[in-house]
Fold this protein.
Amino acid sequence: MLPMKIEDEIKQSAFKSEYQKAYINLVYTSGYLQQNQAAMFKPFGITLPQYNILRILRGQHPKPATVSLLIERMLDKTSNASRIVDKLEAKELVTRKQCPSDRRTVDVLITDKGLELLRQMDDLEGGKGTGITNLTEEEAAQLNTLLDKIRD
Amino acid sequence: MLPMKIEDEIKQSAFKSEYQKAYINLVYTSGYLQQNQAAMFKPFGITLPQYNILRILRGQHPKPATVSLLIERMLDKTSNASRIVDKLEAKELVTRKQCPSDRRTVDVLITDKGLELLRQMDDLEGGKGTGITNLTEEEAAQLNTLLDKIRD
DNA sequence: GTACATTAAATGTATGTACATATATTTGCG
DNA sequence: CGCAAATATATGTACATACATTTAATGTAC
């Protein structure tokens, strides 16, 4: 993608305020990064949400995780973990079985195949090649401070 | 939402780098803002993409816009403008008719009802109440600079 | 211990995204 | 002119999101 200011990108000449501009810029940039990452994911046959679930499961491994725990740790908490696990199960990247002690809950466990896939994908982590590395380390830290403040 | 650093929000204790942290922070914050805005939109009966299309149409008014122009100006260029226009047409917020001079193209025009809805929604613009205003004007400008650099 | 509330997960429905394909129209080249 | 390439829009399919509802199991109050 060519270097462009947000004004040029969306062909809106004037923003009402620096705030509105920052807001739109943030949403736009996030979409840009997500598309970028989705493209890098394609060769591996899983989507970003599926990848996020797998990473949580790897963090738990060899312990299983319940669906509730997955929802709790997901970036987007309102999404539907059950159906994402469906897809992962179909690809044999996780197993799912009813937990004996509380039969309402389900133990989700990453398989060896799932762990191996994550190993192959580890190089993608950290936003390498996504544009975030256009920043200096100091600028990245500055960005983190600003974003944390927005969510305060 | 309570004030939290990104580490606490997603319960991941250690990031590999300031870059990875910034990447995840950006995606997470953008999702947070979008959910926030979606909630503000709900009383008006339209979604964020539908709102974005309407704003572009207001910018063109009283000239019509083709679907191609909508796609070109949309924040997410790969999404499906045709079907979003379907929804807006069903709500009588836009009209659609074949353009006589080039019958491949379609003239999409915002209706009076659509303009009136946007007027009611104008207060929502600028990210007011979305957390972006937790920043000072100077910080917002700083954020804009950083984001533009990411997309360079 | 039965009845009611709570919790965990799955399912239903509408919307949007991503990408491939289809259909109609216009353009352009021989 | 006639036909292939390009263009504009629409449609099909798979996946994800958002939110409401359902189903089953557990906990709790009486």
